[in-house]
Amino acid sequence: MKKIISCLFALVVLSSAAFSESIGFRYFELKFDVPAAISNNALGTKDIFQEELVIDFDKIASSLPKDGFIVAANTKPSFAVSLNLESVSVGYEAGLEVYGSLNISRSIFDFLAKGNKLNEEISASASGNFDVFAFNRVPVQVCTDNYLIGVTPTVFTPVAHAEVTKTKVSVQNKADGTVAAKGEYEVAIMSALQDESIKNEMYLENYNELFSNVGFDVGLSVNVPIIYGLEAKGIAQVPMVPGRLHSKAISKGSFAYDINLLDDEKSKNPEFKSEDLMVYSCNDTIHRPFELMGGVEYKPFVDGWNWLYVSGMVGLGVKYPFSSKAIAYPQYQAIGHIETPFSILGMTLSTEYMNQMFKHEIGFQLNARLIELDWGLSLCGADFAGSLAGKGYGVYMTLCMGF
Predict the structure, then answer these.
(1) Can you spell out the DSSP letters for 257-294?
(2) CB neighbours of residue 41 within 10 Å
(3) DSSP 175
(4) What is the pLDDT of residue 51?
(5) For the chain, what is the largest distance between any 2 Cα atoms, rounded to a whole number of angstroms?
(6) Strands 178-191 and 243-260
(7) Helical ranges in 64-160 per DSSP H
(8) Which H or E element spans position 219?
(9) Separation between Cα atoms, residue 86 and residue 127, nearest integer Å
(10) Residue 314 belongs to what H/E stretch?
(11) How many helices, marked H, and strands, marked E, lie in the chain?
């Protein structure tokens, strides 16, 4: 086994050394990328990994902000192919961009922790959104003596957009010992598919409808040298044409339940009502998020073994731009990277708040020139303190092949 590992390591070193002058990029490259992350703002690592799992509602309720309990998730699997020359890079990338969040009001956790007064009604609500975009883009990058300019036209399809609305629960302690609970929910799912395709469950047969309702946006990037090794950089994702949503499916339901703690005969059987799924046509539009960020990148050893670089950026993001549902939020990203000669091994440390999620990540690089594997783990959270406490986790794996 040791001999096999030694031979593989020697092969990595030799193949990297053979292309040492151009190790920074491959002339032709195939790339597969799978990142994923999930977070919340209530339960951390210490709360979950216990010998005996005990959920402390009092602790959770006291730690939650006014916005309540938030859980969020995202992933962006993609495939890319690129041709890289000394001054020009052209590629093609296709993938899925999936993200969503669910918010539950704090009042329900206050009730679970402290109860409520006699005849007092406690109400809680929930809201959320979920989006799936399929995208195809053509990144083009041009390097001149003084500038590195990138333009990435992107065509996207809104595969699905879901909203959780009009969802609430109420609980009341009555004087006769009855605990009355009732609630209702409504979930709306919109898609670029026509309503007839949804009604007839012909999702795959009519997938071409997705590509007839595409939207368009443009990614822009620029690097400008300031002094030796230090560059100013900026990136933007600019919405241009929205994708179209042609069908809307709505699911509704309600429940009511009365239980008497003093006299079981006064308790009522729970009632559950669920309406038939309603599907109808609509004519809504949706954009991918707008982004604008700027910062600096520093490479102190540009002329030699470029084994270190650091960068930092701040900016703004807007989800659902140009609509009444628009949500604006700040963004930041700080990255530090080190690597060995010939870029065989590398490590990256980063911290960021992007797409409304804090993430602190460590990544590793194993590069044999013809093939490269990058992987990493991250701590995530809806707030900064929660992310450090492990209230969410992320992972990524990237495989590159080429020459």
Answers:
(1) EEEESS-GGG----EEEEPPPEEEEEEEEE-PPEEEEE
(2) 26
(3) T
(4) 66
(5) 85
(6) antiparallel
(7) 107-114
(8) strand 215-227
(9) 50
(10) strand 308-319
(11) 6, 20
Q: How far apart are CA 105 and CA 210, in angstroms?
A: 35
Token digits of residue 214: 């595409």
Antiparallel, parallel or unpaired: β 215-227 and 148-173: antiparallel
- Give Cβ neighbours of residue 61 (< 8 Å, ≥ 6 apart): 106, 109, 110, 112, 113, 114
pTM value is 0.86
Segment 132-172, tens digit of pLDDT: 999 999 999 999 878 999 999 999 999 999 999 889 998 88
**DSSP class of 198:** H
pLDDT for 265: 67
Question: Considering only CA atoms, which of 326, 330, 241 is closest in space to residue 293?
Answer: 330
Other beta carbons less than 10 A from residue 115's beta carbon = 11
Indicate the residue type of 187: V
The amino acid present at 342, given as its one-letter code, is F
CB 380 within 8 A of CB 394: yes
Given a contact cutoff of 8 angstroms between Cβ atoms, the answer to whether 110 and 182 are in contact is no
Res 33 pLDDT > 90: yes
Mean pLDDT, the chain, rounded, equals: 86
What are 193-244's pLDDT values in tens digits? 877 766 666 655 566 667 778 999 999 999 999 998 999 999 999 999 999 9
**Which of 140, 136, 24, 34 is closest to 82 using CA atoms?**
140
